[in-house]
Every structure is written in structure tokens, then in C-alpha cells.
Amino acid sequence: MMMSNRDRKKGPDRRGLLNKEENKMFKLITAWELQQRTDTELCALFQKVSQEIAKAEPGSEDHRNACGSLENIKRAIHTRRAPRPKPPGF
């Protein structure tokens, strides 16, 4: 059986092609991953994740992951900006 162009656009099960952007799960960003980022990257990531929280359905896995990621980003920024104690003798 030959498929027409119209049938191909619907996908093999004929329900329609999935929109990759809509079905992409938000991944929890770990503290280890954030250590590799610059201050500028952390600030940009903070903004992006804040926007993702606004888009996500409250209580959903995406929303929980975004909230956890935002908390990790806040900690990473705070840790870098916090004054470090000087070693004895300085």
C-alpha cells in the first residue's frame, strides 16, 4: 500500500505527528551541572527556567523539575557570591 503525502504527515499510526517542543520533558538541572557554568550562563538559565515554570502546569513533573532546577540555580549563584572566609594568618 502506497502512502500519499497527506498520510505521511499524519505519521505511521495516522494520529498526527508529535510536536517535539510540546512533548519535551523539562529535565532537573543538578548542582554538578551548574558548577560548569559561568555567572552569566547561570543568570540566563535562571531567566529561562523562570519562564518554564510559568508555562508548566502546576503540580506537573515539568513544574516540579523546573522549581527544583531554579532552587539549584539560586544556590549556585549564592554560593559564588558569598564571601569566603580567609585562611588563618591572612
The backbone outline, from C-alpha atoms, is: elongated
What would the average pLDDT be, to the nearest integer? 81
Low-pLDDT runs of 5+ residues are 17-21
Distance between the termini: 81 Å
Give the oligomer, counting copies of the same chain as homo and different chains as hetero: single chain
Task: Describe how the helices and strands are arranged.
Elements: H1 5-10, H2 20-23, H3 31-35, H4 39-55, H5 61-81
Helix pairs in contact: 4-5
Report on the structure:
The radius of gyration is 21 Å and the shape is elongated. With 90 residues, the protein is mainly alpha-helical. Helix 4 packs antiparallel against helix 5 (61-81). Helices cover 59% and strands 0% of the residues. Mean pLDDT is 81; it is low at 17-21. It has helices at 5-10, 20-23, 31-35, 39-55, 61-81. The relative contact order is 0.14.
